[in-house]
Specification:
By secondary structure, the protein is α+β, with helices and mostly antiparallel strands. The chain contains two helices and eleven strands, in the order ββαβββββββββα. The strands form three sheets. Strands 3, 4, 5, 9 and 10 form a five-stranded antiparallel β-sheet that branches. Strands 6, 7, 8 and 11 form a four-stranded antiparallel β-sheet that branches. A two-stranded antiparallel ribbon has the order 1-2. It is globular and about 60 Å long.
Length: about 170
């Protein structure tokens, strides 16, 4: 008889199947997955705002050139519930705007519907020092991401600082 346990979140996302009888590594992986899920839940609900760093994130849809039509970047429109509807296969880029007068550094965290998360900016080979926007300026980053599974509400968290930071090191995602 199998002594495996199938673990899933309250939202129905699988954490995997774990055999506790023969594999200590399965238990260690379970602990790691539960910790990652809990961190994702925490980050999803976290809403901190400072007085000195004021950054704004805009998600843009990239449409590649086709035929005689040039490539384009357009903001996504919000639906009647105030959410963006991004489709599978869409390609996105981000615009960061500094509403303050001093330079600001930033990281961008992607929290997926299953609460797995990843620091997506800076993205190798970019450095924390490159994730900078001057006061009263905006930048469109060249990084592009293709949208795919898992499906559901996804959250992007923009974290700003007056000094370079790399949250990937803090969360072990780089």
């Amino acid at each position: 008889a199998s002594k495996a346990v199938n673990m899933s979140t309250a939202e129905g996302f699988s954490l995997g199947e774990f055999d506790f009888v023969n594999k200590e590594s399965d238990f260690n992986q379970l602990v790691k997955d539960i910790k990652n899920y809990a961190q994702g839940m925490f980050l999803r609900k976290l809403d901190l705002q400072g007085n000195y760093i004021k950054l704004q994130l805009e998600i843009l849809k990239f449409t590649p050139a086709k035929g005689d039509k040039k490539s384009s970047l357009e903001p996504f429109q919000l639906d009647e519930t105030g959410n963006m509807r991004i489709q599978t296969g869409d390609i996105i880029q981000v615009k960061i705007k500094n509403l303050g007068i001093k330079p600001a550094y930033f990281n961008l965290i992607d929290i997926q519907p299953d609460n797995n998360f990843k620091v997506i900016l800076p993205e190798s080979p970019q450095t924390p020092e490159e994730m900078k926007v001057l006061g009263e300026q905006e930048i469109i980053l060249p990084n592009q991401w293709n949208i795919g599974e898992p499906f559901g509400p996804e959250i992007f968290k923009l974290v700003g600082s007056d000094k370079p930071l790399n949250l990937g090191n803090a969360f072990g995602t780089r």
